[in-house]
Amino acid sequence: MVNETMQALTLILSLIIAFLFLLSFFQFVLAVQANLKDNQWQIGVLRAMGMNQGDVRVMTLVESTSVILSAIVLGFGVGYVMTVATLSVIHITQEMPIDYSIDWKMVGALFSMALLTVNYGTDLCISQVSKKKITAILKGD
Predict the structure, then answer these.
(1) pLDDT per residue of the chain (141 residues) written in tens, 0 to 9
(2) How far is CA 61 from CA 39, 76, 120, in A?
(3) Closest Cα to residue 87, out of 74, 69, 73, 101?
(4) C-alpha to C-alpha distance for 15 and 23, rounded to whole angstroms
(5) Pairwise CA distance, residues 76 & 104, whole Å
(6) pTM
(7) Domain boundaries defined on the chain
(8) Where does 1-141 have alpha helices with state H?
(9) Which UniProt keywords apply (predicted)?
């Protein structure tokens, strides 16, 4: 009975995580598009100086990946500290044993899904800028 309840709870939480990743993917794509639109002239200047489309793609991917990795580290750290603090209060008030273990499979799955989202979202957005001619980018078209 307890095992079935845990499996049902895990399924519900996994569905919530998948839904949140879907929402965050669309938000990420919009953020990258806005960033590329703001930096379109700088990208045009870099391409005019000799940077090819692959270099622009790598530059954008590194920037996006560094932002996501810092968000993952900060989010995991703050979340873990808040979890330990909350569970400590529950432990003090209810005097029940609490397990502070981390589900590393879930953390790894979330980490890999975040990196795949960054890679796919950046590729999707940078392909639109890469198709434009350098002169069109510099003119602001």
Answers:
(1) 778 888 898 899 889 988 988 888 888 888 878 887 788 888 888 888 888 888 888 888 898 889 889 988 999 999 999 988 988 888 888 877 777 788 898 888 888 888 888 888 888 878 877 777 877 877 776
(2) 14, 22, 10
(3) 101
(4) 12
(5) 12
(6) 0.71
(7) 2-139
(8) 2-38, 40-48, 53-94, 104-130, 134-139
(9) Cell membrane, Membrane, Transmembrane, Transmembrane helix
